[in-house]
Amino acid sequence: MKRGLLVVYTILLIFLNITPSVPSSPVQNGDKLVHFFEFALLGLLGRSLWVYLLPLPVLLEFFQLFVPGRTFSFADMGANLIGFALGVLIGWLHEGSHKGAQVSDPGRG
Predict the structure, then answer these.
(1) Which residues form the VanZ-like domain (predicted)?
(2) Which one-letter DSSP state was computed for residue 28?
(3) In 10 A of CB 94, how many CB atoms?
(4) Domain extents for the chain?
(5) DSSP state of 103
(6) How do residues 1-20 score in pLDDT, each as one tens digit?
(7) How far apart, in Å, are the Cα atoms of 14 and each of 7, 18, 41, 100, 105?
(8) What is the DSSP letter of 85?
(9) CB-facing half-sphere around the CA of 36: CA atoms within 13 A
(10) If we measure between CA atoms, which residue out of 87, 83, 76 comes closest to residue 17?
């Protein structure tokens, strides 16, 4: 189920990042927040495959050079990478918090 969600989200993310028209944000530099959260969710969902997903935050920003109405931005790329890294880190921390020792041992009476 998790892999399926990751695949669907990755396809959606690719589509959203190569779509020509983008609504503008009413908040100054609000697009950086959108980039951050988009890729934080990708990092969270794909934490076990982070090595394979790592090029995506960079490549999708470069692809925007070839999409009419879109612009390349190092700041957007930075937001993508920081969001992705933080998402992976949060996922690992959350995963590790559930792998601790059991409180009780059902085998002992």
Answers:
(1) 27-92
(2) T
(3) 11
(4) 2-19+35-97
(5) S
(6) 688 999 999 999 999 888 88
(7) 11, 6, 13, 36, 46
(8) H
(9) 9
(10) 76
Provide, rounded to the nearest whole percent, the portion of the chain with pLDDT above 90: 63
Compute the distance between CA of residue 103 and CA of residue 16 in angstroms, rounded to an integer. Answer: 45
Angle at which helices 30-45 and 74-97 cross, to 10° = 40
Backbone angles phi, psi at 105, to 5 degrees: -110, 105
Helix, strand, or coil here: 99? coil
Angle between helices 55-63 and 2-18 in degrees, nearest 10: 30
Tell me if 60 sits within 8 A of 80, measured CB to CB: yes
Residue 46 CA to residue 87 CA, distance in Å, equals 9
Report how far residue 10's alpha carbon sits from residue 4's, in angstroms, rounded to the nearest whole number.
10
* DSSP result, 41-75: HHHHHTGGGHHHHTHHHHHHHHHGGGSTT----HH
